Amino acid sequence: MKNPIDYEVLYENAACGMITFQPDGRIVYANHTLLNWTGYDETAIKTKKFPELLHKGGNLYYHLFILPLLQMHSAVNEINLEIRTPSGSLPVLFSAVTGELREVEGKVINGIIFKIAERKKFEAELLNEKNKAKGEHENQSLVLREVAYNQSHLVRAPLASILGLISLLEENDEVNPDNKAIIKMLNISASNLDKVITNIITLSAKGQGGL
Amino acid sequence: MVDIIQRNNVSVTGCGDQTMIFAHGFGCNQNVWLPVIQALESDFRCVLFDYVGAGNSDLSAYDKHKYATLDGYAKDVLDICEALAIEAPVFVGHSVSAMIGVRAALLKPGYFSKMIFVSPSPYYINDGEYIGGMEESDLLDLLSMMDNNYLGWSSAIAPLVMGNADKPELGEALTANFCSTDPNIAKEFARVTFLSDSRPDLQKLEVPNFTLQCSDDMLAPLAVGNYIYKHTANNTLTILEATGHCPHLSAPQETIEAIKSYVSVPLMEYC
Q1: How many whole angstroms separate alpha carbon A77 and alpha carbon B168?
Q2: What angle is formed at CA B157 by the lines to CA B156 and CA B160, rounded to 5 degrees?
Q3: Mean of the pLDDT values across residues B6-20?
Q4: How far is A199 from chain B (nearest CA, A)?
Q5: Which of A34, A195, B168, B223 has the fewest CB atoms within 10 Å distance of its CB?
Q6: How is chain B split into domains, by residue range?
Q7: With bands split at pLDDT 50, 70 and 90, how would you rate the model's confidence at A100?
Q8: B147-187 pLDDT, tens per residue?
């Protein structure tokens, strides 16, 4: 059975933009879909180089990453770019492979371009939520550290007097020997508690930039 | 002791009396030199490496403070030369690495015999009459592009690669894409690359040096090549027909010939 597909129609009106350019960026051809999306006509786009379709940052990125990758691996995948159009800009995903054409000497780059305006909004939402959550988390741990710092200071004052009173009792000779052992244990426990609180103070002070 | 060879993923290839050390630029790793090396390794001992943070270097050796200036990277270049006991090397640096080489030469005067700069720029940002080619806002745009594209880098794979030399398939996952870098390190390297002003260093350089300038390079415009020529002692400038920022990839043959012709000229002619 004869293949019913008309390749020219398929290419020109594909669901993605298609573009062919030379290694120095000069555009050889772009399909109708891409022309429609970007608002350039065929003659206008052929006077441009592919990186000139991008913002300055994208243009730099093209020369630093995309072109070297194409030269080293003959392919790039899923690069997020912004294409400048006469009316604004278009967020896209760009994938490309290097290939050859009959009419053009040397290698060319065949790229496909997907519009991802809706996807970008979703990504922006995710990023926004992530940053918000990060901010809240940082804020929360700051508050917790403050509480720990303040509370441990409040606890420390009565603890200091307990430790003082214990040492007074220890110096008292009239206490019976059974109670002496209890006072010793009391001293150990209170000293341990003091160490724990000192640790909390040190840690929370560090967290607050060394209060 | 730090294992420099592992830290910077150093590889040595070829043989010859003269050693050449090749430093990659921002955005890629040592593999960028492979097309050039293949033509040079029959005459020269060629040393390749990845900067800490790039390629298969030891990411755990990354130190924010050390690598906040080009000096940190320059010291690593000298460490590598010392570890391999290289005498009077020819330094070949692409892009930011040209200025890292200049720093290294100033840190160790009289050490390098020649320096070759491929698409160099002492300062990428326009500054009064100086044309660097970029504004600072362009750098912010570039950083946001980097935020949107991790180029195959994955935090799940990266920690596995280091310290698993016996499992090369893990390394392949990363090197399959030679631009893969820890995004945070890449951004810091981008800042150091584009915001370091090495113009004062150029005037102090004494080593004979050679610029390979592309004819149409948005990262290092012609004006930059001319600036280096005017402000650096013993500079030779060649303008390549090649366009773009990576002539070693886009026009390896032209690049190889330029490098060979410069290296083979006896030093006396430049002094």
Answers
A1: 24
A2: 110
A3: 94
A4: 29
A5: A195
A6: 4-136+181-270
A7: confident
A8: 888 776 666 555 554 444 455 554 454 445 567 778 889 99
